[in-house]
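Loading example: each entry is read as three labelled lines plus one structure line.
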Amino acid sequence: MKNFLSVHDATTIPDLVNRARHYKASRNENRELADGKTLINLFFNPSLRTRLSTERAGYELGFQVITMDAGGGWKLEFEDGAVMNLDSAEHVKEAAGVLSQYCDVLAVRSFPGLEDRTADYEDRIINAFVKYATVPVVSLESAIRHPLQSLADCVTIAEHRQTDRPKVVLTWAPHPRKLPQAVANSFAEWMVKWDEVDLTIANPEGFDLATEFTAGARVLHNQEEAMRGADFVYAKNWSSYTDYGATAQLPDWTVSEQKMALTNDAFFMHCLPVRRNVVVTDGVLDSDRSLVLRQADNRTWAAAAVLAGLLGG
Amino acid sequence: MKNFLSVHDATTIPDLVNRARHYKASRNENRELADGKTLINLFFNPSLRTRLSTERAGYELGFQVITMDAGGGWKLEFEDGAVMNLDSAEHVKEAAGVLSQYCDVLAVRSFPGLEDRTADYEDRIINAFVKYATVPVVSLESAIRHPLQSLADCVTIAEHRQTDRPKVVLTWAPHPRKLPQAVANSFAEWMVKWDEVDLTIANPEGFDLATEFTAGARVLHNQEEAMRGADFVYAKNWSSYTDYGATAQLPDWTVSEQKMALTNDAFFMHCLPVRRNVVVTDGVLDSDRSLVLRQADNRTWAAAAVLAGLLGG
Amino acid sequence: MKNFLSVHDATTIPDLVNRARHYKASRNENRELADGKTLINLFFNPSLRTRLSTERAGYELGFQVITMDAGGGWKLEFEDGAVMNLDSAEHVKEAAGVLSQYCDVLAVRSFPGLEDRTADYEDRIINAFVKYATVPVVSLESAIRHPLQSLADCVTIAEHRQTDRPKVVLTWAPHPRKLPQAVANSFAEWMVKWDEVDLTIANPEGFDLATEFTAGARVLHNQEEAMRGADFVYAKNWSSYTDYGATAQLPDWTVSEQKMALTNDAFFMHCLPVRRNVVVTDGVLDSDRSLVLRQADNRTWAAAAVLAGLLGG
């Protein structure tokens, strides 16, 4: 792998899943791999799970890990030829070039503005770093994708599936805030490409994701119909792609025990943080079918697999 | 020790003091102890001494140390059954559960609001982490206690006492801001339990600490009377417990050379940061009887003793 | 070296340049040097390059590295005898004394206010830390100097010079903001002392630097005249020293391809971040004569040389 920005960079999904499970099973035995190497995690937006799991993964492989919060004062310029006499203090050409001097792998998190779809879907920050960095770049969630989350989700499904090709349902769920489509886009993209699962997406009318991520999946606008017979139910809110950034308060879409009763005793998944009793009821989240903490744990091992892959390990 | 939240978690005070002195005397020789283990320090409030000394202690034992400032954006929900459609983005159940996946010891700092005594004295943040974490939890100061400071204070007293059962005086002192009772509560609690010292507390009327911390100590409202014959004078401001959060400007209570002359050539102690010429005069603080830097140094070794104890070391 | 605050602390410039090149050539082979030692980087102002390069240098030598942002809430008192009943929560006496307990080397960044020249040129923050710290202090840029940048610049010149005593031109360049004189002061001071280069300074009338830094250099107010025959052109904006903090919008001073054509095929240097097409044109910055990324890389090795020197290595 040269960079890790989406499922298209994965060697193969089964290969990455196996590597992640390998590192999980051999904790503390892989610190020679990145000995003397440095990982920089650059956050344009705050993060808890992603920061901690990536740091842990870095340490597992023996990296020196440096985490930078760049959200505050560091205004970057992205335009070629810009006359920089306004707010931007540094061009991404220099920023990426300089950071590349100080590390062996550069991991970057950024978020969309959710105002201008064209701008967001160009995924400008991560792509500019890829263009100008001279070391491998890892997405720690970009404007439109969250590939390390998706890989961790694949690992979690691989660990828990009881059939050859389980039915996986990605369902939209309510949320009080306007959220990116990144987690949902990425999950759809990975599930569609992974031939070991069968993906159904359920969302209200007006909340269809971009077809570049969902082509190949069944998309239904009826949550109950979608959930029938599911082996895994993955809940997530996202704001509208078509009416860009629009939200809807639809309490009928909360994932509840009643809805889970329609499934094949499905496991429940969510990337966290989760709004209890809005996205999903306490009953579901606190049940022994909930995999949310397993997913969070697997973030570490997904990151380890990717970091090792980028070093050629 | 399972967790470290108060003196009640200490194996015994002499045991912890001895362990701290052991680590201090064997700097750089204990890095095998926590090799491959991770310490997360989670700060809901800012910190200098506590952060640095705990990080140093972690490194001394071989931990990978991750420090998170959670003060800004990360709003946690603490109520069971809450419908999370307002500000709180994550329930402490998930927060503590997730953090437990990424570390072997979780250290947490939080402060009281000093508005609602009942709420503060429930010590909600640290207790919620203890309830939901699956790894040992260390208090880096909670709403009502600061046990690592108290242990460092015990170590400092043990290093400097010249009699079998020295007279220790905890005295209230003036301060321009409204401060928690945590340091004073904890110091009282440790001194009362530690049978190697004799504790007197001096504070103005209206500033008595909660008896759950002070029962067993002599409480006087006359500072000079209290200081007579003291071997150690520990100054600290705290806001009122009884008239909760109230403060008082009482310059007569500043610890001065004149007052120290009443003592048995006492050592002066303070947890820092200290307001010079408000809490204590320059003359006292700059004298060779001042132990404030020794206390700060011992924070590292107190933390090392506790972290090692939590690993069973 | 006892501390590292200016060129006056350098053993000799050639010695430090050689040490820096030695560490650069032996990456990952020097981690025994500071094994078991701790470096604290304390930032009163934000930083990207300085933070990352100093952390990298610390890791290269085997330090445990702790980075503290002190810009926000930590108000220090610097006056002797102050009655601290206002904003300042801690006196630098305690702050420096405490930090010295937690590390083997203390690195400090601070900026000038650019309002009161006398106060800024006393370089109060870094000097107070030097006065009260009990460990070596390194300047990560102070109000009036940036010695690690200057050392990195020396290394970069040493690597690229093609004549025995190249002509180096430090030229003022436009910038939309009011900037410190620190980089320019320091660069002048190092170049003047370094007998292997010949320094010319070009700046508009009213922008002469303080003579304590420039005495011994040629100072011209005509940029084109200065650049003629140059082997290295170092561009940097600074606000006025004489009309303290004043700025000027002088687009004629932008470094362009036309101006570089007057030189002896000079290398272009800048400490970054750089405002493209304000300080310097894209054409110059993107040419193969631009050394700006080399300078950024050499920051790491300059810091390694200094840190090792402070340990006696």
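Residues 3-145+299-311 of chain A form a domain with the Rossmann fold fold (CATH 3.40.50.1370).
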